[in-house]
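Consider the tokenized backbone below.
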């Protein structure tokens, strides 16, 4: 996906040209130097000789001495070179296409960054057209996305206050209206700023799974306890002491955490781009960004813990630290990966966590059918051992750990931070 967006031609696109060059140089009668250069060119590019179109038994044209391997590489990735606005974009595109520092050494360069600088310098450009400045740092915080990230927390706080001050039908209306405006506010908050996904990347079904996980944080634990006990006997009343208790502290905490999440994502993007400009190798860049990613993640969890403590104290509810922190970590990592163009893994992991919660809850009700009592045994065992909060903690915790491992592999690559189509 990243390769296609960066304009890299697929292996085999320029097979005829590469095959002719490799065949001519490899068959040179003048000396071994030309053959060695052609071998390096064929090994360093992303397609082998078979994929590049060289046919066995083909007659080589007139041999040439001193073939240029970098020129052959530029021909293979000419669209990337022509569209790149700086050497960093070429380096990121080469890395996304499988070119490593070891491969760059075969082109007589110490690393991919040095190779990209030569490729960028050799691209012909109009004299009156100057390239745009290199994106070495993230844009400054803008007032629009700063205010949008504060909006979900404010609307959620107003909804919780309305639920506490009303009863009966007005409470149901307040809950429905509050849920709708909160969903719209969250949608607006993630469409701009550092939490927005890059252009031309699929959105997937992440919003649906996120809504389910947030809804379960409000009503899931109470429903599971009531179901295991043989209920629920009535519809929820919107309070924590009803037959189907609701908890509002976790969702209020997550809504307020939208602003810290945006700031954390902005901080990570800015520092990573600075490291990208200063790095001279892919391994060096990955080693510098990995602790930055883990530090940003830890900082967000610390802020989330503080917000949860405050919300639980104000609302008079017990702070569900394990459940809220695992869910917050899952949602933050999913959005951070999405903001850098990696949308598939977050969607799959969110769907898995939501499906696990729904399946465990449905199994309790399905066990009431004749002969199906065994279906509820795993869920009842988990609730007995860890209480009802054990289910979301287990599901979201495993999902968050999976995304954290995935993020340490994907977000430490140069191609995740040098994309021209990313806007804030």
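A designed sequence for it:
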């Amino acid at each position: 996906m990243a390769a296609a967006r960066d304009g890299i031609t697929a292996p085999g696109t320029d097979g005829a040209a590469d095959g002719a060059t490799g065949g001519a140089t490899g068959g040179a009668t003048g000396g071994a130097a030309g053959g060695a250069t052609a071998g390096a060119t064929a090994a360093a590019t992303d397609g082998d000789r078979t994929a590049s179109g060289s046919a066995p038994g083909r007659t080589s044209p007139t041999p040439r001495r001193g073939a240029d391997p970098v020129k052959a590489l530029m021909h293979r990735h000419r669209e990337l070179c022509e569209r790149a606005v700086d050497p960093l974009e070429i380096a990121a595109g080469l890395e996304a296409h499988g070119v490593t520092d070891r491969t760059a050494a075969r082109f007589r360069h110490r690393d991919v960054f040095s190779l990209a600088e030569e490729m960028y310098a050799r691209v012909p450009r109009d004299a009156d057209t100057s390239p745009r400045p290199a994106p070495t740092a993230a844009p400054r915080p803008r007032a629009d996305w700063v205010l949008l990230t504060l909006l979900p927390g404010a609307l959620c706080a107003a909804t919780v206050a309305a639920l506490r001050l009303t009863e009966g039908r007005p409470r149901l209306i307040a809950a429905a209206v509050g849920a709708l405006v909160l969903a719209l506010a969250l949608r607006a908050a993630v469409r701009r700023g550092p939490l927005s996904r890059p252009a031309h990347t699929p959105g997937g079904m992440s919003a649906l799974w996120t809504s389910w996980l947030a809804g379960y944080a409000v009503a899931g634990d109470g429903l599971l306890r009531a179901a295991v006990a043989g209920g629920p006997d009535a519809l929820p009343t919107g309070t924590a002491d009803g037959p189907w208790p609701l908890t509002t502290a976790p969702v209020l905490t997550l809504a307020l955490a939208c602003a810290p999440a945006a700031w954390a994502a902005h901080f990570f993007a800015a520092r990573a781009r600075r490291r990208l400009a200063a790095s001279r190798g892919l391994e060096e860049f990955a080693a510098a960004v990995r602790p930055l990613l883990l530090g940003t993640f830890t900082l967000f969890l610390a802020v989330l813990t503080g917000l949860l403590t405050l919300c639980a104290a104000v609302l008079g509810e017990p702070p569900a630290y394990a459940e809220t922190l695992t869910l917050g970590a899952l949602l933050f990592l999913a959005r951070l990966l999405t903001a850098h163009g990696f949308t598939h893994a977050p969607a799959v992991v969110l769907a898995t966590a939501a499906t696990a919660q729904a399946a465990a809850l449905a199994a309790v009700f399905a066990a009431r059918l004749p002969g199906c009592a065994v279906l509820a045994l795993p869920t009842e065992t988990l609730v007995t051992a860890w209480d009802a909060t054990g289910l979301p903690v287990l599901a979201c915790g495993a999902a968050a750990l999976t995304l954290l491992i995935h993020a340490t592999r994907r977000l430490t690559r140069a191609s995740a931070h040098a994309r021209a189509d990313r806007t804030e």
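DSSP finds 19 helices and no strands in the chain.
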